[in-house]
Amino acid sequence: MSSPSFPMGPITGLHGRAVVVAGDDIDTDRIIPARFLKCVTFDGLGEQVFADDRVELAAAPTGPHPFDRPEVQGASLLVVNRNFGCGSSREHAPQALMRWGIRAVVGESFAEIFYGNCLALGIPCFTAAHDVVLNLQTALAAVPDQELRLSLDPSALEAPDGRLWELELQAGPRQMLLTGQWDATSQLLAHGAHLERTAAALPYLNGF
Questions:
Q1: Does 192 fall in a domain?
Q2: Is pTM beyond 0.70 here?
């Protein structure tokens, strides 16, 4: 797997394929099992995302795990169901998804801490009603390799044939993503001169 490029600055949407991981209450231990939390850095976590589920489904009659299906390799959108990312608050879960290539998630609902950890990485988590998500998953099952267009404002997902799924994104996170305020590193770099002036005036940094 090639090293993915990570989001920086303002995020207005994306264009790409989607991978569906169906089921309610998929927790962070399934997204990235606890044994991988010993890593010193997040590098390599993308290869281990859903590790146990992928091994279990590798020889299953239903076929491999969605993340192992060839038609969705390189997908940037993840479509899930209810209460995705529940369980422990490990930030490794969104890190693993991002390093696999996921740049946005659409689902019925998300665990609050998982949602916040995704926002800190520039990964918008959109919500939609149960029937909307099921309709989207059905459409993706029928044509898994279709290229979709996702926008933040308005929050919507469009298929190549013109079908449109209206989504929801909280106003605060949407504003942070559209303006780039989610990206703490870029914010610090953009205000470098101000930070240097502040540091120069701090007695405990300057010996006075």
A1: no
A2: yes
